[in-house]
Write a structure and sequence with these properties.
Largest sheet of chain B: 6 strands, parallel
Number of strands of chain B: 22
Radius of gyration of chain A: 20 Å
Largest sheet of chain A: 5 strands, antiparallel
Distance between the termini of chain A: 41 Å
CATH architecture of the largest domain in chain B: 3-Layer(aba) Sandwich
Distance between the termini of chain B: 58 Å
CATH topology of the largest domain in chain B: Rossmann fold
Number of helices of chain B: 22
CATH architecture of the largest domain in chain A: 2-Layer Sandwich
Helix content of chain A: 25-40%
Order of helices and strands of chain A: EHEEHEEHHEEHEEH
Strand content of chain A: 35-45%
CATH class of the largest domain in chain A: Alpha Beta
Structural class of chain B: alpha/beta
Shape of chain A: elongated
Number of helices of chain A: 6
Largest interface: A-B, 25 and 27 residues
Strand order of the largest sheet of chain B: 4-3-5-6-8-7
Oligomer: heterodimer
Chain lengths: 176, 577
């Protein structure tokens, strides 16, 4: 198995419990692994949460960590995927000076070409939102950074897999 | 609580009763069959203690002298009985003092339910008096934990806690209860938990893997079994014995696996690991199939992984999927409960005796006997050895005693030389290596198994880490036998300093108090032995004593424990001197 670090997207289906985030992040912390991005949200199943996180580690480390995550009582199932196995998006927001819209006309082209959109404009500032893959957001950042960005923030990755996950079947097997 | 659980609609189901949360806590414990719990009162847990007072004829609370002692006592209780141990403490320092015991239970898979009081829910996060985030603190060292802020949660959380602690691979759980939830009245009704939706305690055994395992074992010329505590936790001793006897496989144990089969069993070839026996360590790197049963390839067992059993096919019987391929890559993994897997394995195995292969273990034992064991058990030098004390205890208890050892040189000697006839007889802190474990653990062990002889063995260092529990022994009149092997050193650290740090004995020399006087201060009969001629009589006096007894044995100051696999070395590079 490769000993090189790779980027993995981890999807974890869990019960919706206080403290579970702590339990999961502790698994990475204990092994000195950095979580690059993290998102938690409801999943397609009522009452079941989904964590999506991104890490750069070796595949052998990844497999062991998945084992440790699944061992947690309130984790239903955990998966890891490489980029080719998922469809993912990240989202970001830029806040910029409104004057730029008029003084630097190419900004409008940048916005159009990058499929970003203007969320709001007022006299002082305007806000651009962009969803896409990591490289697209990195590119937009570089292009806008030339003009000065007042604020920038970016969301954790959200992803769905190309293959089926069969969580519902798994949960149906649990007889009440 | 959001988690979906299966409740048992049995005769336990009664109509509801309106009671306060504090009483519900005690009622939950009674519903789970708890007869004894270990703890220490304090502000945030006082309502529960008030109920323990009212219910004292039904449930026995043992006041420890420190919460760490309570946690270890609960561990000792669980380890000897196979039942869930219960410890209880107040918030803040009471709760944090439990942590070492909880961490020990986590790494040694011991079923514990720990209950902590917490400040009122309106004070959470306000840095209130004796407030600490014990759920946050205990998260990495618990199998599960939960904070209760409403009395109505108590029955479901307790049912779930006991279920999780004892099912699958056991472990500690912690329940934190705010003080207002203890006072709040609600309609109590208890239903035992029979399942948790997101939790599979025992993975399904795959028949194909079982067959593949049997095939590897049947074709092996030089098979070696290494078993761990999984055999004991899974109550699989009989199935295990049947398997090794049919297949004629030499079988070695990890520290926590000790006593699953008798020490004298002809197929028992001794202990693996850092201070284990010469034969099984060396032959780990010669066997053709290594069959691991309910063990986790701890680094103290494997030495350098890069040179560990590389020539062998690895078969791993294991209940916890996260252990598969964690440290050692397996060729065949058989998931599931040891009892069921071994029972199904038995008919697939061919009868065998592996006589020539056994001879190798015997030959290596002879070498170890001449170089190490003879001098440990039959010393000719003047100073007493730890080994001869163990030999005397073996002989006078006829191998029927449970040995509760602490951590260090004496622990390795105890594990190497104690003779066990009964399972669940080797109670020691294996994974965490917690000094101070033995004295309180022996209290719990003796209370859970009053008919058994329980002999605690500690060094002069570890003994003083929880020496205050002599107070518990005195108050509860627990007839444990306390043996301190005093070499006036933190012996294991000193050994390493001698071997790897050019004898620079940094902070390992102990200036000790009069241990006999201390024991007598607690009205415990006590004696000190410094000469060989007095040892037999002193051990006899200890065993014959009906109450607790303290025996200090002054042993050689700078003896070392051998064999030894130095850190980072291969198991086959084990040193005999």
């Amino acid at each position: 198995m490769s000993t090189e670090n790779k980027q993995f997207t981890v999807s974890i289906y869990t019960e919706n419990n206080i403290g579970l985030l702590n339990r999961i992040s502790a698994i990475f912390q204990r092994r000195h692994m950095n979580i690059e991005s993290l998102n938690t949200s409801p999943s397609e199943i009522e009452g079941v949460s989904r964590f999506t996180l991104v890490v750069n580690i070796t595949e052998s480390q990844m497999k062991k960590v998945i084992g440790q995550i699944e061992k947690q009582v309130e984790v239903i199932k955990a998966y890891y995927h490489t980029e080719g196995e998922i469809i993912y998006q990240e989202s970001c927001i830029f806040k910029m000076k409104s004057d730029l819209l008029f003084d630097e006309r190419q900004i409008q082209n940048i916005i159009k070409e990058s499929n970003a959109r203007i969320v709001t404009v007022n006299k002082q500032f305007f806000v651009i939102e962009k969803s896409g893959r990591k490289e697209e957001i990195d590119l937009l950042y570089r292009e806008l950074n030339v003009f000065g960005i007042m604020q920038f923030t970016r969301s954790g990755r959200v992803a769905v897999t190309k293959d089926e996950m069969k969580i519902s079947t798994m949960l149906e097997a649990f007889q009440h | 609580m959001e988690t979906k659980t299966i409740k048992n609609e049995s005769k336990n189901t009664k109509t509801t009763e309106r009671i306060p949360g504090s009483e519900a806590v005690v009622r939950c414990l009674l519903e789970e069959g708890v007869e004894v719990l270990y703890g220490y009162p304090g502000g945030a847990i006082m309502p529960v203690y008030d109920e323990l007072y009212k219910y004292q004829d039904k449930i026995h609370h043992v006041l420890s002298r420190h919460e760490q002692g309570a946690a270890h006592a609960a561990q000792g209780y669980a380890r000897i009985s196979g039942k869930v141990g219960v410890a209880i403490a107040t918030s803040g320092p009471g709760a944090t003092n439990l942590i070492t015991g909880i961490a020990d239970a986590q790494i040694d898979s011991t079923p514990l339910v720990c209950i902590t009081g917490q400040v009122g829910s309106h004070l959470l996060g306000s840095d209130a008096f004796q407030e600490t985030d014990i759920v946050g603190i205990s998260t990495p060292v618990t199998k599960w934990n939960h904070q209760i802020t409403k009395a109505s949660e108590i029955p479901e959380v307790f049912a779930k806690a006991f279920y999780i602690a004892k099912s699958g691979r056991p472990g500690p759980v912690l329940i934190d209860i705010t003080k207002d939830a203890q006072f709040e009245e609600f309609d109590f009704k208890y239903q035992k938990c029979k399942g948790v939706r997101s939790y599979t305690p025992v993975p399904k055994t795959d028949e194909t893997s079982l067959k593949a395992a049997a095939e590897l074992i049947n074709n092996a010329k030089k098979p070696l079994i290494v078993w761990g505590q999984g055999v004991i936790l899974g109550k699989a001793e009989a199935e295990f014995k049947a398997v090794i006897e049919k297949a004629g496989i030499p079988s070695a144990w990890t520290i926590l696996g000790a006593s699953a089969i008798p020490t004298s069993h002809p197929l028992n070839v001794g202990m693996v690991g850092m201070h284990g026996n010469y034969g099984p360590n060396v032959l780990t790197n010669e066997c053709d199939v290594l069959i691991a049963i309910g063990m986790r390839f701890d680094d103290r067992v494997t030495g350098n992984l890069a040179t560990y059993a590389k020539q062998a096919k690895i078969v791993h019987f294991e209940i916890d999927p996260a252990e598969i391929d964690k440290n050692v890559k397996t060729d065949v993994a058989v998931l599931g409960d040891a009892k069921a897997s071994l029972k199904d394995l038995l008919p697939l195995l061919n009868a065998n005796s592996h006589t020539d292969w056994h001879q190798k273990f015997k030959d290596l034992y002879k070498i170890e006997y001449d170089k190490v064991i003879k001098n440990d058990l039959h010393p000719t030098k003047e100073g007493l050895t730890m080994g001869e004390v163990l030999k005397e205890i073996n002989s006078q208890t006829k191998g029927e005693a449970a040995i509760v050892s602490d951590v260090g040189q004496h622990q390795m000697i105890a594990c190497r030389y104690a003779e066990f006839n009964k399972t669940k007889s080797n109670i020691t802190s294996g994974g965490l290596g917690t000094m101070g474990f033995a004295l309180p653990a022996a209290i719990g062990a003796k209370m859970a198994a009053p008919d058994r002889e329980v002999v605690m063995i500690a060094g002069d260092g570890g003994y003083q880490m929880n020496i205050q529990e002599l107070g518990t022994i005195f108050q509860q009149k627990v007839p444990v036998k306390i043996v301190v092997l005093n070499n006036e050193f933190l012996g294991m650290v000193r050994q390493w300093q001698q071997l790897f740090f050019d004898k620079r004995y940094a902070s390992t020399e102990m200036v000790n108090p009069d241990f006999v006087a201390i024991a007598k201060g607690y009205h415990i009969d006590a004696k000190k032995v410094s000469e060989r001629k007095d040892l037999k009589e002193a051990v006899k006096e200890m065993i014959d004593c009906e109450g607790p007894y303290f025996l200090e044995v002054r042993v050689e100051k700078e003896d070392n424990v051998f064999p030894m696999i130095p850190t980072g070395a291969s198991v086959s590079d084990i040193r005999l001197e």
